[in-house]
Specification:
Chain lengths: 483, 348
C-alpha cells in the first residue's frame, strides 16, 4: 500500500492555502507600517446626522486582503474537514483524521448551533458567543473534551490500541501503511501520524492521552477550588490570627519550587510510606465540608429541608470519599465493604500533588476577593439582618466573586494541564507506558532530531488545549467586564 | 521601613526553616534511606544489614536530632562499632572519622557530601549555580526588555490591531510550556527531518563556550514562556495608565503621542510589572529545570533532577535550600522594591 500524503486529492488546495498565508503575512507587515504611509483619521468624514463614515482608500487594501485571506484559510480548512468526513483516505492524512473525528465534529456543530440559538437565555455562557476569541477558545476546549468523551467512553476515535506494537512500524513517518502483520484486515490500514520508537500508533496515543488530561485536569482544579474557597473565605472574612496562620501556610507551599515538590511527593519510595494518600485524605475532605456548610448555612432555620438534604449530599460524598482514599495495598485499607471503586495508584498521587500545588494560589485569590467584598453594603445589610458568618461568606460573598473565579478557573485548568505534562515529562506518577501527553513528549524527545513526529504530535495537542483554555478565559473576562 | 524589612526577614527565616525541615523529613523517610543504603553498600543486603548500616551512620536517630545535626546546632553522633570502625556524618573519603569535627552543618558552611558525584555538595551547587546564573542572565536580557516592549506597544492603544496581534502573541506564549516549545524548536531548527539545522539541539557545549548557535534555543525557550505573562501584566498596567486623567490633560495640552507614552505613561506603567518580574523567579526555576533537562545543560536544574532521580539526599537538600532562598529573597526584593517605586504605598 502507498503511504498517505497529507492532503490526498485535495493537494491543489495547498497552493491556495499557501497563497492565503503569504498574502496574510504581506498584509500584516504592511499593516504594521501603516502609520508611515497613511496618517490616521484623515479620511473620516462626519456626516450631518452625526455619524462618521470612512472612505475606502488604497491604504485599506492590506487590511482587506488580510480579512479575505483569513476567510480563505477557514474555507480551505472546512473543505479539508468536510471532504475528509466523506472521502476518508482519499483526502490524505488530514482527511482520514477528519473522518476519525466525525463524532466530534457533529457534537461541536450541535453544541454551537444550540448555544448560539439560545445564547440570550444562557447568562455568561451565552455571552461567550458574542466574542470571537471566546468562541475559538471554547471550540478548542470542547474539541478535546468531546475527543476524550468519544474515545474514553465509546472507544470511537482511536485507530489502534494505545499499547499495541506492530514491529515493522517502528519510527515510521506520518501516513505509513500498516505492514508486517499476518492479517491486515484486523487492523486499521495506516498509522495516521506515524509510529513511535516502540512501534505504537502516535495518533491513537495522542487521542488516548486526551482522556487522561480531560479526566484529571478539571477535577483537580475543582478540588483545588474547593480547598481554596473553604479556607480562603474565612481567612479573608475573619482576618486576624486565622488569616495570618493560613496565609503563612499558603506562602510556605508557594515558596516551594513545583518540580522539587513533585520529586519529593510522587516518587515510588514516598508512595510506599503513604504520605500522598494521607494528604489525599485531608484534601478530599474539603468538598464534603464545603457542601455541608453550604447547605446548612442556607437551610438551618428549616430543618425539614436541611436534614434530608444534608444526609443525602454528605452521605453520597462520604461514600465517594471513602471509596477514593481506600486502596488495597496502601496504608489506608479499611472499610472495604464500602469501597466501590479503585483509583489507579499513580493517578491518585498525581491528582493529590496537583491539587496541593494549586490550592494555595486559589486561596490567595479567594482571600483577596473576600477582603474586598466584605466591605460592601450588601454584606453589612446581611450582618444587620442577623445572618451567620458562614451564610454571608458562602451565599453573599462567594456569588459576587464568581466573575474573577470563573476566569481563573479556566486559566487554572490550563495551568493544571501544564503541570500534568511536567509530571509526565519527568516520568513521575503515571506508569511509563501511559499515553498521557507529558510522558509521550518525554519518550519522543530521545530521538527528536531524527524522528520528530512522536514528540511533536502530543506537544501540539497539549498546546492547543491550553491555548483554548487561555482564549476561553480571555473571552470570559472580556464579557464579564461588560456587565 | 527598617522594621518592615526586619519583620520580613524574620518571617523569611521561619519559612526557610519550615521548608527545609519538610524537605529533610521527606528525603529522610525510611524507604529513601533503605534505597540509599542499598545503592551505597550492597544491593542484596538483608533488612538487618540495612538497619545496621543506617544505624552506624546515624540515620536511624530521631528526625529532629538529625535535622539539628544537618543545621549544625547538634553535635554529630559518633558511632564506634564492635569491629572498631568509627562512623560520623562529618567524615569524608579524605578525612577519617576520628579526625572529623563534631559539628558539620549548614551553619558551619558544610552542606554534606554528594553520594552520586562524590564531591562536596557546596562546591557542586556553586559550580552549577554559576552555569545556571549565566543562562538566567541571558534569559533576563532577552525576556524583560522584550516583554516590556510588547506590553507597552500593546497597551498604548487599547483595542487597536497592534494590540490584538501582540495580545494574541502573548496568549500563545503563555500557553506553551517549556517542554512543548523546546521540543518544537529542536524539531524545527535542529533536526535532520526538517533540515534547517540553524542551531544545536543540545547545549552541552555551551557550558564551556557559549555561543549563539548552542545557547540561543535554551534561552529563547525559557524566555518565551515568561515573556507572555509579563507582557500581559505590562499591557494591563499600561492601558490603565493611558486612561488616567493626567494623560488626557497632556493630550489636550497638545503633547505628542510619543512623548505621552515615553515621558508620562511609561514610568507609572512599569511599577506593576516590576513585582511580576521578581515573582517570576520561582517559575523561571521550573523552566530552568525543564530546559536544562531537554538541552542537557548541566546546571542547577539538571543537578536537581539528577539528585532527586538518584536519591542523593544531601545534594537534594543543598539544592532545595538554595532554591528556597532564591524564591524568598526575590519575594522580599519585590516587596521592598514595590514600596520604593510606588510612593502611594506606605509601610506602617
Amino acid at each position: 500500500m502507498e503511504p498517505l500524503t497529507w492532503t490526498g486529492i485535495f493537494a491543489p488546495l495547498n497552493y491556495a492555502l499557501m497563497a492565503a498565508v503569504v498574502i496574510f503575512a504581506i498584509g500584516f507587515v504592511l499593516q504594521l507600517f501603516r502609520p508611515l504611509y497613511a496618517p490616521a483619521d484623515t479620511d473620516i468624514t462626519i456626516n450631518p446626522d452625526g455619524t462618521a463614515s470612512a472612505r475606502f482608500t488604497f491604504a485599506d487594501i492590506p487590511s482587506e486582503a488580510m480579512k479575505y485571506s483569513v476567510y480563505a484559510v477557514v474555507i480551505v480548512a472546512l473543505i479539508f474537514i468536510a471532504g475528509g468526513i466523506f472521502l476518508n483516505h482519499q483526502a490524505g492524512i488530514l482527511g482520514a483524521m477528519a473522518h476519525q473525528f466525525t463524532p466530534v465534529w457533529i457534537a461541536l456543530l450541535v453544541t454551537y448551533a444550540l448555544s448560539i440559538k439560545f445564547k440570550r437565555n444562557l447568562g455568561l455562557y451565552g455571552k461567550l458567543f458574542d466574542s470571537p476569541i471566546g468562541m475559538i477558545g471554547f471550540g478548542l476546549v470542547m474539541f478535546w473534551v468531546f475527543t476524550a468523551l468519544f474515545t474514553g467512553v465509546f472507544g470511537m476515535i482511536a485507530t489502534h490500541e494505545p499499547l499495541e506494537q506492530l514491529v515493522r512500524m517502528k519510527n515510521e513517518g506520518p501516513g505509513a501503511p500498516v505492514e508486517g502483520v499476518d492479517d491486515p484486515s484486523a487492523y486499521y490500514s495506516h498509522y495516521l501520524l506515524g509510529g513511535d520508537n516502540l512501534a505504537r500508533d502516535v495518533f491513537t496515543r495522542m487521542v488516548e492521552g486526551s482522556v487522561i488530561v480531560i479526566l484529571i485536569a478539571p477535577f483537580a482544579t475543582i478540588f483545588a477550588f474547593m480547598v481554596g474557597i473553604t479556607l480562603g473565605l474565612p481567612a479573608g472574612y475573619y482576618g486576624g490570627r486565622l488569616d495570618t496562620l493560613l496565609s503563612f501556610a499558603a506562602n510556605l507551599i508557594l515558596a516551594f519550587p513545583v518540580i522539587l515538590l513533585f520529586y519529593l511527593l510522587v516518587t515510588p519510595e514516598i508512595r510506599e510510606t503513604g504520605i500522598p494518600t494521607y494528604m489525599g485524605m485531608v484534601l478530599f475532605l474539603f468538598p464534603i465540608i464545603f457542601f455541608a456548610i453550604l447547605i446548612h448555612s442556607k437551610y438551618r432555620t428549616r430543618p425539614e429541608v436541611n436534614t434530608p438534604l444534608l444526609i443525602g449530599v454528605v452521605g453520597t460524598l462520604s461514600i465517594i470519599y471513602i471509596s477514593t482514599i481506600n486502596q488495597s495495598g496502601t496504608p489506608i485499607d479499611f472499610l472495604n465493604f464500602i469501597d466501590l471503586f479503585d483509583v489507579a495508584g499513580g493517578i491518585l498521587t498525581v491528582f493529590v500533588s496537583v491539587v496541593f500545588v494549586n490550592s494555595p494560589t486559589v486561596f490567595r485569590i479567594v482571600r483577596g476577593l473576600a477582603l474586598d467584598i466584605k466591605t460592601r453594603d450588601y454584606v453589612a445589610a446581611a450582618q444587620t439582618r442577623g445572618e451567620g458568618p458562614f451564610y454571608i461568606m458562602l451565599w453573599e460573598i462567594l456569588p459576587n466573586a464568581r466573575g474573577p473565579l470563573i476566569v481563573d478557573f479556566c486559566l487554572r485548568i490550563g495551568y493544571t494541564t501544564i503541570l500534568l505534562g511536567t509530571l509526565g515529562f519527568f516520568g513521575l506518577g503515571l506508569p511509563p507506558e501511559s499515553p498521557d501527553w507529558g510522558a509521550t513528549i518525554n519518550e519522543g524527545r530521545k530521538l527528536l532530531s531524527v524522528y520528530p513526529h512522536p514528540a511533536i504530535v502530543p506537544a501540539v495537542a497539549l498546546l492547543s488545549l491550553v491555548l483554548g483554555l487561555n482564549l476561553l478565559a480571555d473571552g470570559l473576562r472580556e464579557q464579564s467586564l461588560k456587565d | 521601613m527598617g522594621q518592615f524589612i526586619l519583620r520580613r526577614l524574620g518571617v523569611m527565616l521561619l519559612t526557610a526553616l519550615c521548608l527545609t525541615f519538610v524537605v529533610f523529613y521527606l528525603t529522610n523517610l525510611y524507604p529513601n534511606l533503605e534505597k540509599l543504603a542499598k545503592t551505597q553498600a550492597n544491593n542484596r543486603m538483608t533488612d538487618e544489614q540495612v538497619a545496621t548500616w543506617l544505624g552506624n551512620r546515624g540515620y536511624t536517630q530521631n528526625v529532629f536530632v538529625k535535622y539539628g545535626e544537618w543545621i549544625g546546632v547538634v553535635s554529630s553522633k559518633v558511632t564506634v562499632t564492635e569491629a572498631g570502625d568509627t562512623f560520623t556524618r562529618c567524615s569524608r573519603p579524605t578525612i577519617p572519622a576520628e579526625e572529623a569535627s563534631r559539628f558539620c552543618g549548614v551553619l558551619q558552611g558544610d552542606f554534606g557530601f554528594s553520594s552520586v558525584f562524590k564531591d562536596e555538595v557546596s562546591s557542586i551547587v556553586w559550580q552549577r549555580l554559576g552555569l545556571t546564573g549565566y543562562l538566567m542572565l541571558w534569559v533576563m536580557i532577552v525576556m524583560v526588555p522584550g516583554a516590556l516592549l510588547v506590553g507597552v506597544l500593546a497597551g498604548m492603544r487599547e483595542g487597536s490591531k497592534l494590540d490584538r496581534s501582540l495580545s494574541t502573541f502573548s496568549i500563545i506564549t503563555t500557553a506553551t510550556p517549556e517542554y512543548v516549545s523546546g521540543v518544537i524548536f529542536i524539531a524545527v531548527f535542529s533536526s535532520s527531518a526538517v533540515g534547517l539545522r540553524w542551531f544545536k539541539g543540545t547545549a552541552t557545549s555551551a557550558m564551556e563556550s557559549p555561543n549563539f548557535e548552542n545557547f540561543f534555543l535554551p534561552v529563547i525557550t525559557i524566555a518565551l514562556y515568561g515573556l507572555g505573562y509579563i507582557a500581559r501584566m505590562t499591557r494591563a498596567s499600561m492601558t490603565e495608565v493611558m486612561t488616567a486623567q493626567y494623560i488626557r490633560t497632556a493630550r489636550l495640552k497638545g503633547v505628542s503621542f510619543g512623548n505621552i507614552v515615553l515621558k508620562h505613561a511609561l514610568r507609572n506603567a512599569l511599577i506593576a510589572p516590576f513585582t511580576v518580574i521578581m515573582l517570576q523567579f520561582p517559575w523561571l526555576l521550573n523552566g530552568v529545570v525543564i530546559v536544562e533537562t531537554i538541552f542537557n545543560y548541566k546546571g542547577f536544574g539538571w543537578t536537581l533532577v539528577e539528585a532527586a532521580g538518584n536519591n542523593d539526599i544531601e545534594l537534594l537538600l543543598g539544592v532545595s535550600v538554595v532554591s528556597v532562598f532564591v524564591v524568598l529573597l526575590t519575594q522580599l526584593i519585590s516587596d521592598i522594591g514595590y514600596v520604593y517605586l510606588n510612593p502611594r504605598i506606605r509601610v506602617s
